Amino acid sequence: MKPAPFKLVAPRSREEALAALAEHDGDARVLAGGQSLVPLMNMRVVQPGVLVSINGCRDLDYIRLEDDRIVCGALARQAAAEESDLVRRRCPLLADAAPWIGGMANRNRGTVCGSLAHSDPLAELPAVAVATDAEIVLASRDGRRTLAATDFFVGELATAIRPGEMVEAARFATAWSGERTAFLEVSNRQHAFAVAGVAVRLDLAPDGRCRDVRIAVMGGGPTAMRIEAGERAVVGTTIGVEAARAAADAVERAVDPPTDIHADAAYRRRVLGVLTMRALQQAAGRS
Amino acid sequence: MARERVEVSLTINGRTYRDRVESRLLLCDFIRHVAGLKGTHVGCEHGVCGACTVLIDGRTARSCLHFAAAVEGSAITTVESLATEAALHPIQQAFHESHALQCGYCTPGFLLTTVELLGRNAAPTTEEIRQALTNNMCRCTGYANIVKAVGVAAAAMRGDGAAKA
Questions:
Q1: Which of A208, A256, B88, B133 has the most CB within a 10 Å radius?
Q2: What is the average per-residue pLDDT within A176-197?
Q3: Boundary residue ending a domain (B81, B99, B125)
């Protein structure tokens, strides 16, 4: 339970970090909070030759409003996002989901971007990223590129990050004018491995009609998934029981959940349907 | 690969400890073997059990999930900081009086988790206490007395003697 030897590089700025990644092309991993990477290293599932710790890069530690998006820099801790007034007001789904990520000790250290880069199919933040139309900013010494969250998550623990690149920031869409949100999850303990979870954003008109909606699920497949068929079932409605049930049915049809020690695929599928119904009704203020 | 060694200087409980260590040395092992502070216990070594919980810059963290060399410049606080020569910390006193430990292996992690909780919420409800402790494992007590002890500690630290167990 001790990691294999590695070389540690501790840059003091974004520029230095990108230079270090370029120099160790392919054999380097970025270390931010380490809450996913270090367990894998301790178990020697992962044995990077070089770790580039960005913990000293103050210029990557920010949460700010930019071009009408909530932008979390690579060193923004999950606890900082959870406690940020800006996040609570302008991207409430991120604050709703944060308490589910892990215990306080994990959220104090784990970063928002680190969780996205890890792309665990049972993690909360990828589902939040999908539900908030997030953009993932990838940086290397050669420049920047920006991907939609749905293009960034490629598979289980797999993303579009290329050698020499790091996630520099995640840019979450700000809330709609009539935004109502819900994040629901089932797990054996709140901070244990999740069975499944659902993230919902609604844009409700003053008359209660749903003008726009996002439904994203975790535990429905190898990555967080947006379920557009479910969204079509509720948009334009006042989210009554029938519409919510139709969305839940669409979710159950769209997902292909994994089986593991915590739950089998059939149970996960059912849980995702039930959580979808509950999340829609909770967000619409009906529960 | 060559076992790279780096000079690491850490401030633990206000005192500075320096050594040349491997980059891969975990913070918990630096605390135990370089600083000689054996109150930080190592359990699962992959962030699940909470026994190795310390404070990094005043906030709880798993010391088994950090490399000593990567937390230079941070202030580390361990369980040894709680008691004085003369008296246990009120949280330790409450754990003692409420029988909130048996073997004691997990206790340092619970104590520091409670320090953080009570620092943010001086009067937590039972539900809030349980919520704050979900990430720490105890295989002896069944948790009931730990939850009770945190409530007793909170009352004592508020100066509310009537709530003493």
A1: B133
A2: 92
A3: B81
A56 contacts B26? CB cut-off 8 A = no
A279 pLDDT higher than 80:
yes
Mean predicted confidence (pLDDT) in B76-88: 97
* Domain total of chain B: 2
The separation between CA A206 and the C-alpha centre of its own chain, rounded to angstroms, equals 30
Instruction: From B130, B109, B129, select the one nearest B120 (Cα to Cα).
Output: B129
Q: Which of B20, B48, B53, B65 to mutate to test the interface with A (most CBs of A within 10 A)?
A: B65
Residue of B nearest to A50 (CA): B23
The answer on pLDDT for B165 being more than 50 is: no
Strand partners of residue A77? A111
Write out the residue range of the structural domain in which residue B145 sits: 90-163
d(CA A165, CA A106): 25
Could you report the predicted ipTM of this complex, rounded to two decimals? 0.94
Strand partners, A71: A64, A171
- pLDDT given at position B162: 52
Tell me if B96 sits within 8 A of B32, measured CB to CB.
no
